[in-house]
Design a protein that fits this description.
Chain B: One of its GO terms (cellular component) is plasma membrane. The complex is a heterodimer. Chain A is globular and about 75 Å long. The N terminus of chain A is likely disordered. Chain A has 14 helices and no strands. By secondary structure, chain A is mostly helical. By secondary structure, chain B is mainly alpha-helical. Chain B has one domain: MetI-like (MetI-like fold, Orthogonal Bundle). Chain B starts with 10 loop residues before the first helix and ends with a helix. The N terminus and C terminus of chain B are likely disordered. Classes of the chains: A mainly alpha, B mainly alpha. The interface between A and B is large, with 104 and 115 residues.
Chain lengths: ~280, ~325
């Protein structure tokens, strides 16, 4: 029985709670508003008043200044990031589901030790072995290539862990048995029966895998020295250079260009993303 | 038993389907880790040098790194920045969790707030770093504009020359990007608590604050620990924001261990060996932390399972004994 609270204290609480939430909302959105508005304003306008909520008329000028530069190329960065993120997400999702399937559906001797290893390395970030990784990649001439940014995703312990948790209650063994009786091979069972059943979990993990890969700076930064291979975060880092020291509007526009795809994706998928975070889908 | 049909053993498919993972893991994770560990004992340095010998004193790099003033500063900074961001982050996340899961005081627009609070987390950290660099710019930047036109300050403040201010901005960015994430994880933890407990508390006349501290917090202990450890591991690897915001400056105020390692290995004299030694030190710290988490997460299920196995064994024993008795009888 919910007690109807109409004490004056409740109103006070509500006012404080809403005020605080609105403050945090402003804090979250304000930097992006400034970024969007200033991307349309001229350097002079920004110099006289850096905060404004009225867009200027300088979007075109800012754009042409930005495009004049030979280094900062958001479209190339977009293309490269897309290749890396799509490739690594596909590897991550497909092979993690496959590994989870091996862990859930079959009874093999090393199953438990294998899962223990996966649990043990769950938290260890790739960054701590990056020097060895770089030296190794240099030796086999894989620097300035997308492969070392894509292929390691085949072994993603976090995704395997998540997929396993999802698969245990949702994959009835009877279906596998009946498929076997119908003469389906194990590989076909995985591709045609298990993968479609795992779609919701795969979608959630795909979003996070994609975003993580898209946003990652450290690995591309050490592996890619050729500007033709720069991913989006590397392109962003060029905006800090001297070429744009006084071109405030262009820097904001450049930043905006790099986040537009993510912002659009976020507003389309926010429901799933929030639900995915709630499932512990990402590492902090 | 489940995987056997008509006497065919399917166990080989377990191995078969794990092959891609195992191969990729060996090549891209295990080998580089061992390689990094080995490089830490060698004289490997110089641009793209892959020729190296082991040092006479194998631990020399480690010694030099531990004595290195910049490494100490960076380790101190990393821990300090993490603590300074984590305390307000967990406090505010808990506060919001309490509000958003409150039964007596329903807050409207929860969905909207969640989406907005989480948003900074999904934006490319590189972009965030440079955006904040622009926001706090001197002499003309939005923050300085607000400070001067609101009359809080007479003239612009040069944030990037102040060690404290620069560090606080990095702390703020970390907080700003992660509190929404932490909040959502905590809320999902709270929603996992049985509503019966809350109902019982309400009947007993507990108020909101009592319910929160006596019921909510103890019930999300595991989630809290998970948040703590994952955040700490993430914090120890902090790279994008300090690296792009001020390159670790001013005067090493925002130099984190990851930026230090990057600088050692990929700029100046390309000290791969020292960078490797520093990496391995971080590896040890992180491995220890993840060991703690592993222990906590494993705990419950494992204990439960062990108990069940024990019980099953006992029962089997009893049954077999019974069987023997029966047979004798």
């Amino acid at each position: 029985m919910a007690v109807v609270n109409k004490k004056p204290g409740t109103y006070g609480f509500k006012i404080i709670a809403y005020a605080f939430c609105i403050l945090l909302t402003v804090l979250s959105i304000f930097p992006f508003i400034i970024m969007i508005v200033n991307s349309t304003r001229s350097t002079g306008e920004i110099q006289s008043h850096a905060v404004s909520f009225i867009p200027g008329l300088n979007l075109k000028t800012n754009w042409s200044i930005l495009m004049k530069s030979k280094t900062f190329d958001p479209f190339l960065g977009f293309r490269n990031s897309l290749i890396v993120s799509v490739g690594s997400t596909a590897c991550n999702i497909y092979f993690s589901t496959m590994t989870a399937f091996a862990l859930v559906a079959y009874d093999w001797k090393l199953r438990k030790p294998f899962f223990t290893v996966i649990m043990a390395v769950l938290m260890i970030p790739a960054q701590v072995s990056s020097i060895g990784f770089y030296t190794f990649m240099y030796k086999i001439h894989w620097t300035n290539s997308f492969l070392p940014l894509i292929l390691p995703a085949i072994a993603a312990p976090t995704t395997v862990f998540f997929m396993r948790q999802y698969m245990i209650p949702s994959l009835p063994m009877e279906i596998l048995q009946s498929a076997r009786i119908d003469g389906a091979g194990e590989f076909r069972i995985f591709n045609q029966i298990v993968l479609p059943m795992m779609k919701p979990a795969m979608a959630t993990q795909a979003i996070f895998s994609f975003v993580t890969s898209w946003n990652q700076l450290f690995m591309p930064q050490i592996l890619n020295t050729d500007m033709k291979m720069y991913t989006m975060p590397q392109m962003v880092s060029l905006l800090n250079g001297d070429a744009y020291k006084t071109e405030y509007g262009s820097v904001y526009l450049g930043l905006l260009l790099t986040v537009i795809p993510i912002l659009i994706a976020y507003f389309l998928l926010s429901k799933y993303i929030i639900a995915g975070v709630a499932l512990g889908g990402v590492k902090g | 038993m489940k995987t056997k049909l008509k006497g065919i053993s399917y166990s080989k498919y377990g191995y078969l389907f794990s092959i891609p993972f195992v191969v990729a893991f060996l090549i891209f994770t295990l080998y580089p880790t061992i390689y990094t560990a080995i490089l830490g004992f060698t004289n490997c340095r110089g641009v793209n040098n892959t020729e190296f010998q082991f040092l006479e004193h194998p631990l020399e790099n480690y010694k030099l790194i531990l004595q290195n003033d910049s490494f100490r500063v960076s380790l101190k900074n990393t821990v300090m920045i993490w603590i300074m961001n984590f305390i307000p982050q967990i406090t505010i996340a808990l506060l919001l969790t309490a509000w958003f899961t409150s039964h007596s005081n329903e807050i409207k627009g929860k969905g909207f707030f969640k989406v907005v609070f989480y948003m900074p987390n999904i934006i490319t950290a590189a972009t965030v770093a440079i955006l904040f660099h622009s926001l706090f710019n001197y002499p003309i930047g939005p923050v300085n504009d607000i400070l001067t036109s609101s009359g809080l300050r007479d003239e612009s403040y040069y944030f990037f020359t102040s060690k404290t201010a620069s560090r606080l901005i990095v702390v703020f960015i970390q907080f700003w990007t992660w509190y929404g994430n932490t909040m959502i994880v905590l809320i999902s933890g709270v929603l996992g608590i049985s509503p019966d407990i809350y109902e019982a508390a309400e009947i007993d006349g507990a108020n909101g604050v009592q319910t929160f501290f006596r019921i909510t917090i103890p019930n999300i202990k595991t989630v809290l620990l998970y948040t703590l450890v994952t955040s700490l591991v993430g914090g120890l690897n902090m790279f994008d924001i300090p690296f792009l915001f001020l390159k670790g400056g001013p005067d090493r105020a925002t130099l984190t261990t990851s930026v230090f390692i990057y600088n050692q290995a990929f700029s100046g004299s390309y000290l791969y060996n020292r960078a490797s030694a520093a990496s391995m030190l971080m590896w040890i710290i992180i491995a220890a932390l993840s060991g703690v988490l592993f222990f906590i997460m494993r705990d419950k299920e494992q204990i439960q399972m062990d108990k069940e196995i024990k019980r099953a064994k006992k029962e089997a024993k009893r049954a077999s004994k019974g069987g023997v008795n029966q047979w004798q009888w």
